[in-house]
């Protein structure tokens, strides 16, 4: 802002920082909810320092608690969200493979009497495994996910045999056992989903599709979304016939369940199928139909505008995107929408910089410190 709009405009921008919120999980939630992720990373560091960890404590003996590990997970997840992958890897390093003795409840019998098992949040294990693919090592990610999958499968097998999670004798009620089985089935499905995403990144489409199919067995309620996703993978690699087959399967599934969301999924798939065939007029018709049913659908709105652009209707396309952003800036000031809008400004006029700066002002008044201004193409 300072560079493009000057000191006066920059001084007007008011954003929360680590010092302006309560130094607790409540303050942390506040920063995350208003997308001030950098400030949230800073607050996590301060809270960890209060736990005897964090800034300047590297290499020193430490005691973990469930709270401190939750803070580490939030901090690491935010670093990944901000694209600071190398920082996240460095901060993960002292945790090793997340199986060190001091990461278990049994290591602190005076704090957690009678409790057993790992204190590491399951999502932190998934993050630890997924991080490597963002650093250009997808095979290492896959290996780590396979190890997590093996443990989840073993725990699930123990529970289904009437044993405790660790294979010992169990004293839980049947209801408690069923709740544990549901939890670990859900976790196994989550691991499979991460593995499928990793295979997709590696462009191993056959194995990725197999993995997505296996996810359906753990999340049957997500079948329409997962089948749609597989169909869109086929579209991306130019296999129109396979995409059509999957989209037809989605229609059969949604006919049984009904509901508005099912209809929107079917129409969205038809629109993408026409996009894949370069039939922008038909694609636009389906996106418009979705907007009649769900006027706030950002994906349909954005894609309808792109279709208009390809149909040679630049002014109409611009009007649609501008109306969308003005209608609900908090909801629609999305990076992909703004990237499309600034690209259209460049096509429309050689004086696009003023309009881009107006967008920057709008973003500054609504967005937190995590917004990536590169989408505005100001440089």
Question: What's the SSE blueprint?
Answer:
Elements: H1 2-12, H2 25-33, H3 37-50, H4 66-81, H5 85-92, H6 122-134, H7 138-160, H8 174-201, H9 205-218, H10 223-236, H11 240-257, H12 260-276, H13 280-293, H14 298-310, H15 314-327, H16 329-332, H17 335-348, H18 352-366
Describe the structure.
One of its GO terms (cellular component) is endoplasmic reticulum-Golgi intermediate compartment. This protein is mainly α. It is 68% helix and 0% strand. The protein has 4 domains: 1-87, no CATH class; 121-218; 224-265, no CATH class; 279-354, Tetratricopeptide repeat domain (Serine Threonine Protein Phosphatase 5, Tetratricopeptide repeat, Alpha Horseshoe), CATH 1.25.40.10. It contains 18 helices and no strands. It is globular. The relative contact order is 0.06.
Strand content: under 5%
Radius of gyration: 24 Å
Outline: globular
Helix content: 55-70%
Q: Major sheet, described briefly?
A: none
Distance between the termini: 12 Å
Number of helices: 18
What is the number of strand segments?
Answer: 0
Number of domains: 4
Mean pLDDT: 88
Spans of 5+ residues with little confidence (pLDDT < 50)? Answer: none
Structural category:
mainly alpha
State the order of secondary-structure elements, H for helix, E for strand: HHHHHHHHHHHHHHHHHH
